[in-house]
Amino acid sequence: MSINDLPVLSALRTKMQWHQERQRVLSENVSNSDTPKFRPRDLVEPKLDKTGAVTGSMGPLALTRTSGSHMTPSGAASDFDQNKNAGFETRPAGNAVNLEEEMMKAASNQMDYAAVTSLYSKSLHLLKTAIGKG
């Protein structure tokens, strides 16, 4: 088994790749803040199992009705009006990018990426110490 095959390191690498891709998507949202009819996008955070592999689908979660008194899950007839526009505010040109929100997401993503890279490097250092090469 290679040191790169460890589940913890695999999960941390997957998380770092996700943060890099999310940063690309968020910067794309900011760069299109003046593009008419542009809708901001974001990535769904991956769920990892104990082996560090991605589990489940990356799409939206399905609702589960656990009690008869709960509202009906999506897909069933609903009495509520739904706003399909995901953006908080939409300008007259149809652009729904909120620069403040995108910058907050980018800053949060950058801090999370720094935390994951720190964990990754500390894990490698710990492993090297354990085998006597650190």
Q: SS-based structural class?
A: mainly alpha
The major pleated sheet works out as:
2 strands, antiparallel
Total of DSSP H or I helical runs spanning 4+ residues: 2
Helicity range: 40-55%
Distance between the termini: 19 Å
Radius of gyration equals 20 Å
Average of per-residue pLDDT values:
81
Give the low-confidence spans. 77-85
Instruction: Tell me, briefly, the overall form.
Output: flat
How many beta-strand elements?
2
DSSP strand content? under 5%
**Oligomerization:** single chain
**Helix and strand succession?**
HEEH
What strand line-up does the widest sheet have? Answer: 1-2
Word description of this protein:
The radius of gyration is 20 Å and the shape is flat. Mean pLDDT is 81; it is low at 77-85. It has two helices and two strands; from the N terminus they run αββα. The chain has a two-stranded antiparallel ribbon. Helices cover 43% and strands 3% of the residues. The protein has 134 residues and is mainly α.
Defining key terms:
mainly alpha; two-stranded antiparallel ribbon; 2 strands
Q: Which helices and strands appear, and what pairs or packs with what?
A:
Layout: H1 7-31, E1 47-48, E2 54-55, H2 99-130
Antiparallel strand pairs: 1-2
Structure, briefly:
The protein is mostly helical. The chain is 43% helix and 3% strand.
